[in-house]
Structures are given as structure tokens and as C-alpha cells.
Write a structure and sequence with these properties.
The protein has 27 helices and no strands. By secondary structure, it is mostly helical.
Amino acid sequence: MQGLEVTVLLGLAILIGTALAPRLRIATPLLLVVIGLALGFVPPLREIQLPPETVLLLFLPVMLFWESLTTSLRAVRRSLRYIVPMSTLLVVASALAVAWIATLFGMPWETGLLLGAAVAPPDATAVAALGRLLPPRMFMKLKAESLTNDGTALVVYAIALSLALGDTVTPWSITGTVLVSYLGGAAAGIAVAYLAYLGLRRTRSSIVINTALLLVPFTAFLAAEFVHASGVLAVVFAGLIVAWMLPRITTATSRRQAVAAWPFGVYLLNGALFVLIGLEVQYVVHDIPARLIGVLLLVTVSAWAALLVVRYLFQLLFSPFARPSAGTAGPGTPDAGTMGAVARRRALGGNRGRIVSAVAGFRGAVSLAIALSVPDTIRGAGELSGRDAVVFVTAGVILLSLLVQGPLLPAVVRWAKLPDDGAVADEYELAERTITGAAIAAIDDLAVEHGISDGVRDRARREGYERLELANARAYARQRGADDARIAELETMLGESSASDTGPVSAGDLSSSDDDARERDGIDDETRSLRFVVPSTDAPAGAPASVGSLEMLATSTGIDLTQRSPLVRFEEITRLKLAIIERKREVLQKLRRDGTIDDLIVRRIDGHLDLEEMRLRGADADE
């Protein structure tokens, strides 16, 4: 088929899947895979191939870069003791386990190791698309792991390919390959990110900024390929560094354009990949001799089960080393020395949390791209030694992970009853109140600095107090709702117990619990009293009483310049509000640097500030 026909077909498949998935109450990626499988029954459509270089060189850099930009750097730093072994040692262990399983069915060891390298890494895009039901902390850890494990899988694949082609492989060559892949990829990503910073720090054009950001992942991948390093790690490092520097190298308009364009583009790429996976499975099934289908299906199911078991056992064995110490949590979070050992164990999810994490390890297009990269010239004895066997089993494992683990994950999450992570709401409210309070405290200085009149200054102060009141009221209402839910739960437990074993809960105990909850949430009596200390909305004594009527402004002669004060006041309030926004951003970034609030919360609040700034400046101010 022609390229245009394929493009239209993929677009229609994505459109249909996106429209039907909510009505059928299934995840969109799962429906897109099913659509791809259905299209594969048409012989001409089955011939549509997924070139591995298209995934590795075109799709993967864009998707990994966007996932890196939207990853919490604080979560990555705090979970390094979990992420590093899961993205390196677990990938190796999974590859070896799958290779061993494959040899039991007659597949040569070298071919089995190629298969293991292909199916070992969970896919970042599949995790991002299907893992939204997970608690935020677990989802972010799994996402960070899946961003970096592709690099390890490609190293294992390179070693396995050398063995399959008959090349000499020594411990020294393996060590050199690993060092060059990791260190070279990190260096390439850091260098490209630094060059992007140098080129964009003085640029204000939104088109220039977003075009340069689009080139960053491809440039990082290309630079890593030049030194035979990991392009995946280069893109991830570049994305994480650019995400940290984003407020200094972008503008409000450019950020809003990027937030609108990148998710849509990544969604289309993801959708096309899921449809192509379904088509590729059909192609592989029809291309394999019928006599080998049975044994390959056994290998597929066994490899898929082995991946789940190895992931669970690895987490079980490494759980003592992956727990964060008391000092790793930043200030203002529940982990900052206030949680006991039992609470930390509950937050980690325990055994049920490990089961959820094992089920959430989806395989995707990267695994299929690695399998399709296997050359036809690999050596080995037996019918299961060729490239087709590797591609068949890999496609089957991907299909099982998407169509079995995907629908199963919501039920497993409900069964696990993982504790609700209220840190996101707590930190958001803390950030809102902190930046609003800092802006109110700085209004006098900002008014003097920008030459703002008293009336405009007091108006801005009243608006700031109203916004602070709203933030406090929301925090208080949410905390009261949480307290009421806990009290209801206690009453239910007490009602189920015998009256002889438990006495009635006194009002004082409930009041004490309520006070403790408010203290944990940062709402003390002094803060609550602020809800009632709102300045009067009456105009200050020193403010001008009147600005003139429309009839006076309509006169054609003898116009007094002071009667243009509405324009003057509009310019003043615009300057003051822009200064307040900058002050809020300064405080917000300081909270981020201190680790008090998460990066994702910073981006969420910064997005609101961007919209407000664009309303004041105009949407085309940076063009």
C-alpha cells in the first residue's frame, strides 16, 4: 500500500478507537490493538510492516522526550534506590529467565537471549497509557523505571546478537559495551541539553523555542549513535535536564503551545503503534509454519508468565534495599521523619503493591522493534533458531501483556486496596497558599518599584486576600471531609465490635483527632483565623473618589488628561499583576528547589500562571 493510504488507514483506526473506547468502557490502547488485529484479517493490510528503525529513530525519541518532560524529578531522585536496580538488574534477570525458558523448548541459547532482550523491558509509552489507575507515587516510579530500562535491553541485545553471529564476547568487551552505552548516552544527553539552554536562554520567539525543543531528542539520539552509546539514555537525560531548565528557556506562550501540541502528537504516535502491533501479530502468525505454532504458543505463554514471576520475586528480594530512608523525604511531606515503620510499609503497598507493580509491567512497541531488528543471518540449530521465532514470541508476549494485564489491572488495583496518596492535594494547597501569601506580602514593595497608585495597589491586595481565603477554605473543606470519612470508618468499626470490648468515642477524642489532622495539613488556628481577616472592599480613604463620567469623556474640547485615568489604571493593574505573577513564580521555583512540592504540581500551577500572564499580555506577545 502507498504511504498516503497507510496514513489515512491509521488515522481512521485511531479515530474509531478513540470514539468507541469510552462507550465500550475499555482503555483506548487495548481497543486499538484489537482494531489492528481485525484489520490484519485483510491480506493486503496484513502486508503493512513496522520498520524497526522507524520506531527506534522516529517514534521513540519523541515519546521518550515527552515522558521525560512530564516525569517528576523529585520522585526520580527519591526513588533511585528502586529505579536503578529495576531498570538494570531486573532487565538482565528477566532476559536470562526468558532465555532459559526458551531453551527448554528447543530454542538455542543465543536465540533465546535475543528473545529475552526483546521482551525484558516494560514499555514507557504503554505504561503511561495504561498505568493511570495506579497511585501517583507508584505510577511515577514505574514510569521512571520504564524510561531507562530500554537502554539496558539494547545493551543486552547487542551482546546477544554478537553471540548469535559468532563474534567473540569476553567479560572485558561486555564491560566496555556497558560503560560506553551508559556513560556515552548520559554525556550526549547532558551536552545536547546544555547547548539547548545556551541557545534558548535569550530567545523569546515561541516558534523558535518549540522548534528547538522538538530537535533536542533527535539530536541527542544522533549524538549518542555517533559514539555507539545508548540513544535512549541520551534522550531521557536530555529530557530530564530540559524539564528542570524549562522555566528559564521558555515563555508563557511557548509553554502553552507545547502543552497543546506535544500530548496530541504523542497520542497519535502511540495510537499508530498500537494499531501496527495488532497488524504485525497477524503478519507473524500467518508467516510461521503451522507445525511450529503450538510450540511457539507454549514458549510465548511461558515467557510471559516468567516475566511476571521474575518481576514479583525481584521486588520481593530487593524491597529492603529499595525503601527510602527517613532523610530522603523533603520537608512538608508525610515522609519527613513523621511516618513510622508501619506507615512506611503501608505506603509502599507491601506484598499487594508488588503484585500490582508486576501486573502493571506492560510490553509495547520497543520490544517489537528490538525483535524486528534481529537479522535473518543469526546462526543456530533447530527450527526455533531463526528470526521468525523471536518475532512471533515477542509479538505474543506484547499481546498478552496488553490484552490480559491491561483489563486485569483495574481489578488488581481494587483488590490491593492501596492507601490513598493525599500528598498531591496537600502539596498543591500548600503551594497555592504559600505563593499567594508571598505575593500579598510583596505588594507594597512591588507597587513602589513599578510606580503603582494606592488605589490599584489596594485593589490587588484585596484580590490577593480573596484568593488566599479561597485556598484556605478549600484546604479546610477537604480536610474536614477526610476527617468525617475517618470518623465514619471508626464508627463503623466500633459498631461491629462488642460493647464490652470498646467504649464510646468521646467528643474530645474526635476533636483531638480533628485538630491533629488540621495540624498535619498545615492549618492551625492562626491560619483559620485568616479566613475572617479580609480587608473591607470599600475604597481606601486616599483613593480617588471618582474617575469621571462618560459624558465628560465625550466632550470634544478641553479634555482634562486626568479623565483618561481608566487607561492609566488599566496599565497600572496590568504591570502590578505581571509583577505579582513573577513573584509567585520565584516562590514556586524555590519550593521546587527545596523539594517541598513536586515537579508536576509546579507545572500545574505554572500553567495557571501562564494563562493569567497571556490574558494580561495578549496571546501573541511572544510571537
